[in-house]
Amino acid sequence: MTRVINFDKAFKFTVPVSVVIILAGLVGLGILGFNNGVDFQAGLNSDVAFVPPSISLSFKGDGTMTLQNVTKADITFISHAPSGESKSYTFAFAQYPTLQALADVFKTIPGVSVELKADGAVDSKLLRGTSQTDSQLGETPAILHYAAQGSQAVSVDIEKIRLALKSFGDVSIQRTSDENSHEYMIRLQDSGKDPEFSKKIIPLLSGELGKSFGADNVLVNSSDFVGARFSRTLATQAVWLTLGTFVLILIYCSFRFKPNFAIGAVLSVVHDALIMVAFMVFTRMEFNTSSIAAILTIVGYSINDTIVIYDRIREKIKYNPGAPFRENMNRGITETLSRTFITVATVLLAAISLFLFTTGSMKDFSLAIIVGLISGTYSSVFIASAFVDGWEILESKQKVKKQAEQAHVAMVAKAALVAANPGKGGKK
Amino acid sequence: MSKIQRLLIVLAVIAVSFVFLWPTVSWYGLTSKADQALAVGSREQIRDYSRSMAITDLTALKASAAAGSDAKLDAQKFAVDIQAASNTYKTARKAMPSEWTATSALAAFVSEKSAYDAVENIYRTRVLNLKAQQKKAVKLGLDLSGGMSAVIQADLDALAKKLGHSLSSAEKADAMKRAIESLNSRIDKFGLTEPTIRQQGDDQIYIEVPGAADPENINSILMGRGKLAFHIVDDKATASLATYLESNPLGVDEKTMTVADKTIVPAGFVIRKFYKKDSYGLDEFTGKYMVLNEVPGLDGTHITNATTSSDSITGQPETNFQLDKEGGEIFYKMTSAHVKETMAVVLDDKVKAGATISEAIRDSVRMTGFSADESANLALVLRTAALPVELAPVNTKAVGSSLGEDAVRAGVMAITIGFVLVIVFMLLYYKGSGINAAVAQVVNLIIMIGVLSAFGLTLTLPSIAGFVLTIGMSVDANVLVFERMKEELRAGKGRVAAIRAGFDKAFWTIMDSNITTLIAALFLAQIGSGPIQGFAISLSIGTISSLFTALFVSHLIYDFETDVLKAKHVSISWRVK
């Protein structure tokens, strides 16, 4: 048999550390609150890029011509001829490396007229779409943009945007990618005073930005409006469902294990949820629906992890009923330790790959998951079992105390002292 | 259960998953972008497409036959026509011509009309099949496909105030139907894709228009009030338009709603399309056009109520509506001047019904000659004007399609790399047994995506995240079994005994831990609507399918190695032999 690690020795450090972190998180939450995302705060979130025009396109002819999309690798048009025939045109940037080359090839599409609005030598990979993606081209030119670099770029920073939007009151602005792509997340709050807010705000926003930075230089990539009613419903729903999850886990575990195991399991999951809350509060990570999803995922993962360890402790107790709980516990945790590490390693690999390849709210989501995974693994080993251990000690103390009261014998009190510290006796 | 039976079960599950997966693979992988654009269009657009394709083809064939050309037909360009002709020869049991020329192809058909129908049918069937395939494929959520969505709140309180009493549940349901009806007629003006519109909860409406990402569109949908009016129909012009369209099926220019032959539509009259409800409750163009007086005979705002009933003697369904006093006067003048003519009910430039005026009517109107469904729909249309419901957006979202495409790419990359990393780790750590885990995870992934397709679920960015994490988590079941086996091997057991003990001892651990995870995942699936749900569903499916792959598939692989490959040892660790 491999050497048994005495995990109980660590409890007197881990429990206070967790308690301190969680309390700090709760205090922080009380003072700072969550950095509520659009899901939990009525208002408008817009993803705006400040990029100058590159090529303007117009279409005159029979049928329709649609700009399907502009990705990082190519641009696609789809035409519907009046005869009903549809045709797609995809131009890969690898094949047409400059804006000039793209403009030239666009001219070959029947009915399309092209005007180059930027330096033709610019790398075509910098091409960006129009504000109305998937737009049908018409006689009024649709403007494609490009992520200009250096002196060609639109002069913009957070302060300038704030100045341009000063009439909107409370505005929060964040740069969403590296400095050179000039993309910003702009959030306007809906104070609820104007009932027409949702209808007016989008054109108003692009209008104001256009006034300050030039209408052709503003590209709204996405927008997300959430009304007050929607966010309230979501928040209450999330809280109730999380509590419901805890109760059901409690019932299932009481049924499969003992009630004290069940409480320990739920405590360790609550611990992970609160650690993640602390993390989100102190890093000022945006709190949105994905954050709730992250917390509940970790609840699912951590409970899994805890149950596996409990299961092994239960097995140890079954085969070794006479031994003190603490001994069986240490043995159980030790025997499952390699499994604990391997499992957390595989999930971490997945979470890290998610973190590396996604952007925006999904990146935040994966970061929260990574923190939760570490906390979940830690709590399964050090928190869930610590609770059961404490419970068992209290129980045996009480048992002994009862006996002591009944017998009124000084000797029994001495025995209780020994029983209360079975760790010493159990050491091998 | 014998090993053969178990193998058959595993193969059957994989096969079924592939069957469900096929439409997704075929739609995203094998369908050209132009075909995709066609298939996502409305049925009306598809019909227009097949009609015009048929006309173009047949005009070319006729011209070539008239010129007496004996040239062989271009097999690619005229593939559809050749197929139509050969089908006709086959059903007529006539000998096929040795070579397809314009003349021999046209000779297959008894009339020009039947040629047209046959060719159009093939074109249409092809696109409709593509559409059916798209419906079965995994759908991409807005965050991946780009587009816009809105949750719209119907202000039922305001309606209750207006009516002066609180709404009964039947009244609420009717108000929601009216609100959807009034949105319905405006929403399909946007974009080339078919919109989704449905009631959500008691008093909300969900709208989704994939592809189009202009958030201002949502406002124009909401701002434009449904405009209902009664117009007098020029029956003669309508009939001559129908005759004209028989020889020129695409005679009406959809943009301007005019025909080239200016003599058909008199001045002061306009062409409008006639719509019926399809089985989904959406407007569907009937193919009929009507020529209406440009100036409405009566505005819909005069309607005070509309109901349906059935005739007390014949039992025929009828629609009744009441007008206010002023409206009654106007209606009386209009109907007395146009007895025996047709009057059209027009909502937002769409003709919803036409009825012959039998006599002069004042403020209480009875319309007959409809089926029960049509009659109920008509009453609903009339009530949208009588009792309009105020609508306000609760939540709108617009995502540029380019953002979506980049997100798909990033998601696929994350899944691939995450999957490969997990598999490589398992191979390095568990050696031969790692292969076992790898196979189990591949099967797991196939089942997960197959189930996702089967339920017609929508794939969103969070559900991709769900996949990646689920793969990481579901390996846990394999790990539990492997670790048990290692212990058994260390204790000196042989291959067969160690494998059996490993699976037996890990069984309840796996069940307990996965059931608790499933509880969390199922609760997660109840939150809100979009993103979390997608994620939770991936997680739930993954948890269940990993039970199957880890306990069933993986065990079978070990047995296969024991029985068929005659393996004596378990390759599971660098230390344990």
Q: Might you state the CATH topology name of the largest domain in chain B?
A: Multidrug efflux transporter AcrB transmembrane fold
| Count of separate DSSP helical elements of chain B | 18
Q: Tell me, what's the shape of chain A?
A: elongated
Q: What is the N-to-C succession of helices and strands of chain A?
A: HEEEEEEHEEEEHEEHEHHEHHHHHH
Outline of chain B: globular
Low-confidence stretches of chain A: 423-428
Secondary-structure-derived class of chain B: alpha+beta
Cα-atom Rg of chain B, whole angstroms? Answer: 32 Å
Describe the overall structure.
The complex is a heterodimer of chains A (428) and B (577). Chain A is an alpha+beta fold. Chain A has helices at 8-32, 99-106, 158-164, 197-213, 228-256, 259-283, 289-319, 325-357, 360-382, 384-407, 410-420, 422-426, and strands at residues 35-36, 43-50, 53-59, 64-70, 74-80, 86-92, 112-116, 127-128, 136-137, 142-146, 171-175, 183-189, 218-226, 286-287. In chain A, 56% of the residues lie in helices and 18% in strands. In chain A, the strands form 4 sheets. Chain A has a 4-stranded antiparallel β-sheet with strand order 11-12-2-13. In chain A, strand 5 and strand 6 (86-92) form a beta hairpin. In chain A, helix 10 runs antiparallel to helix 11. Chain B folds into 4 domains: 3-24 and 403-563, Multidrug efflux transporter AcrB transmembrane domain (Multidrug efflux transporter AcrB transmembrane fold, Up-down Bundle), CATH 1.20.1640.10; 33-137, no CATH class; 140-225 and 392-397, Alpha-Beta Plaits (2-Layer Sandwich); 228-370, Gyrase A, domain 2. In chain B, helix 15 runs antiparallel to helix 16 (461-490), helix 15 crosses helix 18 (531-563) and helix 17 (495-524) runs antiparallel to helix 18. Chain B is globular and about 105 Å long. The interface between A and B is large, with 94 and 95 residues.
